[in-house]
Amino acid sequence: MNYVELNISVPSAEIAEILTAELSELPFDSFVTERDRLKAYIPQDALVDCKEDADAILADYGITDCRYVQIEAQNWNALWESNFEPVDVDGRVLIRAPFHAPSPTAEFEVVIMPKMSFGTGHHATTKMMVEMILDSGLKGKIGLDMGSGTGVLAIAACKCGAERLDAVDIDDFAYENCGENIVTNGVADRITPIMGDARAIAGRKYDFILANINRNILLGDMDNYLKCLNPGGEIFFSGFLDSDVDAMTAASTSRGLTPHHQRHTNGWAALSFIKPL
């Protein structure tokens, strides 16, 4: 599969974050911010159906300096190696690639080769989710990482003591990449990659659910998630902006959930809720 890079000149970090949120509603699945440029990646075949929508989003924010660049699949790893720096999460976890030096002080590491999958720890939502995982007492629990991408959240949860997880993603590259990353991190016996959407979890039961996707999918699939969440279980949401918190909270509390954690970084938000007993 070939990818296309949408290379955008952005006037501020805030605009870069907003554009990331807007474009993530389309089939763009990876983003890199470099000083005054945002790079968004999308499968070439998918761009055909949404290029007008992407151009309209850029026009809404007055973006004129942008270009589409085709990237051959075999060049993806080299591209990521040139952009991917290790991510420190609160001095407790280091998210790094195999070509980075290990940390002598972190509680644990998550080693990720992202390839074409979302989730390296660079994005604010991924980092906030890892922060909540660290503070949530998952030892011995069974969980779901919905929209798992690289598997970074599932791996972090396992290394925090979760007994096992399903890692579900609709993208075939993400499914394969997650499978590779769980082997690298020594947790392949505790994480099961599954390719599919919310229908793939029907009939399964979990003590906690991690869902870092986007607002529309979270709202649309929330009932499917909650059917699988055990009473007293916790569901973690991210992938949306601060401006979406009220809608996410209203949708959750109207279903009987109790607010628990809330985090905010650079205009992005992460929330968790407890299902009543």
What does this molecule look like?
This protein has about 280 residues and is an alpha/beta fold. The chain has two domains: about 5-75, Alpha-Beta Plaits (2-Layer Sandwich), CATH 3.30.70; about 120-275, Vaccinia Virus protein VP39 (Rossmann fold, 3-Layer(aba) Sandwich), CATH 3.40.50.150. The protein has eight helices and 14 strands. It has helices at about 15-25, 45-60, 75-85, 125-135, 150-160, 170-185, 215-230, 245-255, and strands at about 5-10, 30-35, 35-45, 65-70, 85-90, 95, 110, 140-145, 165-170, 190-195, 205-210, 230-240, 260-265, 270-275. The strands form three sheets. Strands 10-9-8-11-12-14-13 form a seven-stranded mixed sheet, with helices on both faces. A hairpin with a 3-residue loop joins strand 5 and strand 6 (about 95). Helix 4 packs parallel to helix 5 (about 150-160). The longest helix has 17 residues, at about 45-60. It is globular. The model has no long low-confidence stretch (mean pLDDT about 90).
Task: Describe the structure concisely for a colleague.
With 277 residues, the protein is of the alpha/beta class. It has helices spanning 13-23, 44-60, 76-83, 124-134, 152-159, 172-184, 215-228, 245-253; strands at 3-9, 30-34, 37-43, 66-71, 87-89, 93-96, 108-111, 142-146, 164-169, 191-195, 206-212, 229-241, 258-265, 268-274.
